[in-house]
């Protein structure tokens, strides 16, 4: 077959592309490993100290992640996303296996667990932007929305499988066994990542090695921020994402537990609410994975955020658990659609040379800043009650959707066919 015919052949759908499937397998293994690691860390921390001390250990990862995330984007663009993801999973594999060995040999204090959490957060700061920058290097541009749907399904699968797998490992051999299982899962991702063959970047873009790594890091970071500020879609999109994260993360993570406690639904109630949210988000990911794109992506993004804000506010007034679970499904579905569209628009609109830095900015709200605001959410709920916290969060989410709809360039943004 001639080269011209090969060039004219349509690309494979993402769910049938061996490169995408290798990446998906590596991402799923890494996501399940994350869930097992955090369960093992929480169990080891609770077993070694007070609940307050365990909470500090669990929160330790958020600090370096928030401080270093933007610089992690520079590293991803300089070195290439596959290399950074490969190095990150290698580091996490070695660290978790090392923790397992230490726990088998002795009973370390909380200081070692806190140090491990800090290192894990620092590694996350370079891993997360690289994960966001990798899909355009393995899939055609018109398949990136479908890849985001598949990524969402893998993330939900990691959450569903990780908790029981980690619990089984702890029950079998304690935290050491769970850390060992997490290390094995990280190790499973490595050969899959090594087998990836990256697509060439468009003419004039940087290759696998990224940008030349001899200039100041701050200059590269400033270049990425200027690229964002001057882009007619990405600049407004980052403001939309940040507002949505600030309004969504705190009330949903802290507020659900408080709501279940106040209504007398207990721990099973929290489980049902989280399951409802996960089911809705999984359905949204499946929708995008099957359809490949949604028409009028920018406008759909804005309206799903506004409708999702209404569903978040409705949670505070749900009288019974079945009603609250149904509302949680709606929240998950709408948030899943808007989140997948945000990621897809970032990857299709961004110049590949800046994708690591732009992905870092996109992740900063949900994974860096918003978790640090969770204690404030809890304090506000203690002062004014859970209902006002949900309503305030919903108002911020609605503001983000309204902003998306009022910016013409973002409202008219489309995903490629």
* Uncertain residue ranges: 1-9, 203-212
Alpha-carbon Rg, integer: 21 Å
The total of beta strands comes to 0
Number of helices: 16
Approximately how much helix is present in the residues?
A: over 70%
Indicate the structural class.
mainly alpha
Strand content: under 5%
Mean pLDDT: 84
> What are the secondary-structure elements, in order, as H or E?
HHHHHHHHHHHHHHHH
Question: What is the 3D form?
Answer: globular
Question: What is this entry, summarized?
Answer:
With 417 residues, this protein is mainly α.
Architecture overview:
- By secondary structure, this protein is an all-alpha fold.
- The chain is 81% helix and 0% strand.
- The chain has 16 helices and no strands.
- The protein has helices at residues 3-8, 18-48, 51-59, 62-79, 81-105, 110-133, 144-194, 217-230, 234-263, 266-291, 297-315, 321-349, 355-372, 374-384, 386-406, 408-411.
- Helix 3 runs parallel beside helix 6 and helix 11 (297-315) packs antiparallel against helix 12 (321-349).
- The longest helix has 51 residues, at 144-194.
- It is globular.
- The two termini are 26 Å apart.
- Residues 1-9 and 203-212 have low confidence and may be disordered.
Which keywords apply here?
single chain; 417 residues; mainly alpha; 0% strand; disordered N terminus
Reconstruct the topology from this structure.
Layout: H1 3-8, H2 18-48, H3 51-59, H4 62-79, H5 81-105, H6 110-133, H7 144-194, H8 217-230, H9 234-263, H10 266-291, H11 297-315, H12 321-349, H13 355-372, H14 374-384, H15 386-406, H16 408-411
Helix pairs in contact: 2-3, 2-6, 2-7, 3-6, 4-5, 4-6, 4-8, 4-13, 5-6, 5-7, 6-13, 7-10, 7-12, 8-9, 9-10, 9-13, 9-14, 9-15, 10-12, 11-12, 11-15, 14-15
């Amino acid at each position: 077959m001639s080269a011209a015919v090969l060039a004219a052949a349509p690309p494979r759908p993402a769910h049938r592309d061996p490169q995408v499937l290798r990446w998906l397998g590596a991402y799923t293994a890494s996501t399940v490993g994350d869930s097992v690691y955090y369960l093992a860390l929480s169990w080891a921390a609770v077993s070694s100290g007070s609940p307050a001390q365990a909470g500090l250990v669990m929160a330790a990862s958020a600090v370096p992640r928030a401080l270093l995330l933007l610089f992690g984007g520079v590293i991803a663009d300089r070195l290439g996303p596959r290399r950074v993801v490969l190095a990150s999973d290698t580091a996490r594999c070695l660290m978790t296996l090392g923790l397992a060995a230490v726990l088998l040999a002795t009973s370390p204090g909380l200081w070692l667990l806190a140090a491990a959490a800090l290192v894990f957060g620092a590694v996350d700061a370079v891993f997360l932007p690289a994960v966001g920058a990798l899909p355009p290097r393995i899939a055609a541009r018109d398949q990136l929305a479908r890849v985001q749907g598949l990524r969402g399904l893998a993330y939900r699968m990691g959450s569903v499988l990780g908790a029981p797998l980690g619990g089984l490992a702890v029950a079998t051999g304690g935290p050491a066994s769970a850390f060992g299982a997490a290390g094995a899962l990280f190790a499973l991702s490595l050969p899959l990542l090594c087998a990836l063959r990256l697509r060439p970047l468009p003419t004039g873009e940087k290759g696998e090695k990224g940008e030349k790594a001899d200039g100041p890091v701050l200059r590269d970071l400033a270049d990425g921020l200027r690229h964002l500020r001057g882009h007619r879609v990405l600049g407004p999109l980052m403001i939309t994402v940040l507002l949505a994260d600030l309004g969504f993360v705190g009330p949903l993570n802290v507020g659900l537990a408080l709501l279940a406690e106040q209504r007398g639904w207990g721990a099973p109630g929290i489980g049902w609410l989280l399951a409802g949210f996960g089911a809705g988000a999984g359905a949204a990911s499946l929708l995008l994975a099957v359809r490949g794109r949604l028409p009028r992506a920018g406008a759909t993004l804005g309206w799903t955020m506004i409708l999702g804000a209404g569903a978040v506010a409705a949670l505070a007034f749900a009288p019974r658990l079945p009603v609250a679970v149904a509302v949680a499904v709606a929240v998950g579905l709408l948030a899943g659609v808007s989140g997948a569209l945000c990621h897809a628009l970032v990857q299709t609109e961004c110049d590949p040379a800046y994708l690591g830095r732009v992905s870092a900015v996109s992740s900063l709200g949900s994974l860096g800043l918003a978790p640090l605001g969770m204690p404030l959410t809890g304090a506000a709920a203690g002062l004014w009650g859970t209902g006002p916290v949900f309503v305030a969060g919903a108002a911020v989410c609605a503001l983000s959707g309204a902003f998306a709809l009022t910016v013409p360039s973002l409202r008219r943004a489309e995903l490629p066919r």
